[in-house]
């Protein structure tokens, strides 16, 4: 089995202008773009993710979802039915976690963020997969199809292929604050 251990834990801040971001990155820590590239590569390779919401009793609830690839600002969209537990849980507590794991490369991305339910017809049309047609009465046009928009606040990344390893002592991954 390959090991995911390696360098010290790292935190990189996103949101700074590119020149400031590169100046703010201490020597030996990965550049913001490196972490984002690794994260998006893993998300696309993994395809499916585990979405974790918090139920009314404070208990984390996990399920597999088929999200769209992340947008340039790292926003993630997920299609679902409005009557699902995840929709009710997000309306009650918008804090969510998405975990993408690509087993073939021993890489993962954890996305911590805030979710909201979106029923806008233009967004529903933009975020639709034809293979979902049998699950929804009027495809993306009906009231039985809504979207979950996840806006990340932090990424946790382990990607040996991109040179991003977790801390050898604590196993803490590379962290990227995206607020």
Features:
alpha+beta, about 35% strand, Pnp Oxidase, Chain A, about 180 residues, about 20% helix, 4 helices, disordered N terminus, 10 strands, eight-stranded mixed beta sheet
Q: What fold name goes in the CATH topology slot? A: Pnp Oxidase, Chain A
The CATH class is identified as: Mainly Beta
What count of structural domains?
Answer: 1
CATH architecture field: Roll
Number of strands: 10
**What gyration radius follows from the Cα positions, in whole Å?**
17 Å
What's the mean pLDDT score?
A: 88
Strand content: 25-35%
What best-fitting shape do the alpha-carbon axes yield? globular
Distance between the termini: 35 Å
Say which CATH homologous superfamily is assigned. Electron Transport, Fmn-binding Protein, Chain A
The run of helices and strands is: EEHHEEEHEEHEEE
| Residue share in helix | 10-25%
Total number of helical segments?
A: 4
Structural class, by secondary structure, is: alpha+beta
- Largest beta-sheet characterization: 8 strands, mixed
Poorly predicted segments: 1-23
How would the blueprint of this fold be written?
Layout: E1 5-6, E2 11-13, H1 18-24, H2 32-46, E3 49-54, E4 60-65, E5 76-80, H3 85-92, E6 95-102, E7 107-118, H4 121-126, E8 146-158, E9 166-167, E10 174-177
Parallel strand pairs: 1-9, 2-10
Antiparallel strand pairs: 3-4, 3-6, 5-8, 6-7, 7-8, 8-10
Question: How would you characterize the overall build of this protein?
Answer:
- By secondary structure, this protein is an alpha+beta fold.
- It has a single domain, classed as Roll (Pnp Oxidase, Chain A), CATH 2.30.110.
- The chain has 4 helices and 10 strands, in the order ββααβββαββαβββ.
- Strands 2, 3, 4, 5, 6, 7, 8 and 10 form an 8-stranded mixed beta sheet that branches.
- It is globular, with a radius of gyration of 17 Å.
């Amino acid at each position: 089995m390959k090991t995911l251990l390696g360098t010290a834990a790292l935190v990189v801040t996103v949101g700074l202008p590119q020149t400031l971001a590169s100046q703010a990155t201490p020597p030996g820590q990965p550049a913001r773009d490196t972490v984002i590239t690794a994260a998006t590569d893993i998300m696309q390779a993994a395809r499916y993710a585990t979405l974790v919401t918090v139920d009314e009793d404070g208990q984390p609830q996990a399920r597999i979802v088929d999200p769209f690839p992340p947008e340039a600002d790292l926003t993630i969209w997920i299609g679902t039915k409005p009557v699902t537990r995840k929709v009710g849980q997000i309306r009650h507590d918008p804090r969510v976690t998405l975990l993408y794991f690509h087993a073939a490369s021993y890489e993962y991305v954890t996305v911590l963020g805030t979710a909201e339910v979106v029923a806008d017809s233009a967004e529903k049309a933009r975020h639709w997969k034809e293979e979902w047609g049998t699950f929804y009465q009027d495809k993306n046009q009906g009231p039985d199809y809504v979207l979950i928009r996840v806006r990340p606040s932090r990424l946790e990344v382990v990607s040996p292929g991109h040179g991003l390893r977790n801390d050898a002592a604590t196993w803490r991954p590379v962290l990227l604050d995206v607020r």
